[in-house]
């Protein structure tokens, strides 16, 4: 009886552990993560942004923590207000289709991921800042979830923003984030993983 209970407990845990292997599988990823050769001439496929009263620094570093070998970073110094961000080039998506995303990062302060939708990939028609995803400061963190493409939109991008757009009050004068992996893949519409469910091997500061 005790052995049977142990097996039942193990089976109950497996569905939470198996999906973490998805983080290592970049096959079919629609997002172009930077590679070492990009360090010589800019970061194609990504746009940096900043505003406010602060000293923003956008950078890219070689790292074994990124599947592509390169992470993207933002460091804000002498911070008073504003944000810094990286946004990947909008990718073509299908209205009504479900997509699964995964983002691996580390940061000294909370960050946001803002969903940006457009038609034909040229003009941003809809940036969902009010419903941005809010992620914690962490030494190593992986966020995974899913989204369904709204009707009439056929391009999508994440704008990863430091600090979190929902933060109020006094903020640190210096903060930073490193983005290791960004993945977006179409999935069967019947797949129903809870959005933003942290997986194993994630450590919060």
Explain what this protein looks like in three dimensions:
The model is unreliable at 1-23 and 195-205 (pLDDT under 50). With 205 residues, the protein is mainly β. The protein contains one helix and twelve strands. Strand 7 and strand 8 (123-135) form a beta hairpin. Strands 1, 4, 5, 7, 8 and 10 form a six-stranded antiparallel β-sheet that branches. It has a six-stranded antiparallel β-sheet with strand order 2-3-11-6-9-12, with no helix packed on it.
pLDDT < 50 runs, ≥5 residues: 1-23, 195-205
Q: What is the tally of beta strands?
A: 12
Query: In which range does the helix fraction lie?
Result: under 10%
Distance between the ends:
40 Å
- Proportion of residues in extended strands: over 45%
| H-E string | HEEEEEEEEEEEE
Largest sheet: 6 strands, antiparallel
Radius of gyration: 18 Å
CATH architecture: Sandwich
CATH superfamily: Galactose-binding domain-like
What is the element layout, followed by pairings?
Blueprint: H1 2-17, E1 46-51, E2 55-62, E3 70-77, E4 83-88, E5 91-92, E6 98-107, E7 111-119, E8 123-135, E9 138-148, E10 155-162, E11 175-187, E12 203-204
Antiparallel strand pairs: 1-4, 2-3, 3-11, 4-10, 5-10, 6-9, 6-11, 7-8, 7-10, 9-12
């Amino acid at each position: 009886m005790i052995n049977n209970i142990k097996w039942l407990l193990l089976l109950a845990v497996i569905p939470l552990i198996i999906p973490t292997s998805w983080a290592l599988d970049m096959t079919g990823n629609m997002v172009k993560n930077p590679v070492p050769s990009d360090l010589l001439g800019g970061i194609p496929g990504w746009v940096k942004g900043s505003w406010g009263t602060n000293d923003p620094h956008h950078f890219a570093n070689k790292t074994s923590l990124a599947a592509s070998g390169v992470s993207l970073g933002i460091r804000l110094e002498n911070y008073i207000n504003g944000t810094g961000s990286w946004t990947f080039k909008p990718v073509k998506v299908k209205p009504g289709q479900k997509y699964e995303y995964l983002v691996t990062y580390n940061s000294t302060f909370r960050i946001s991921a803002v969903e940006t939708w457009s038609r034909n990939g040229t003009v941003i028609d809809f940036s969902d800042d009010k419903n941005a995803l809010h992620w914690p400061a962490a030494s190593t963190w992986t966020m995974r979830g899913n989204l369904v493409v709204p009707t009439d939109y056929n391009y999508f991008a994440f704008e990863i923003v430091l600090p979190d757009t929902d933060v109020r009050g006094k903020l640190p004068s210096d903060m930073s984030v490193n983005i290791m992996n960004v993945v977006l893949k179409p999935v069967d519409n019947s797949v129903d993983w809870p959005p933003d469910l942290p997986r194993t091997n994630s450590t919060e500061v």
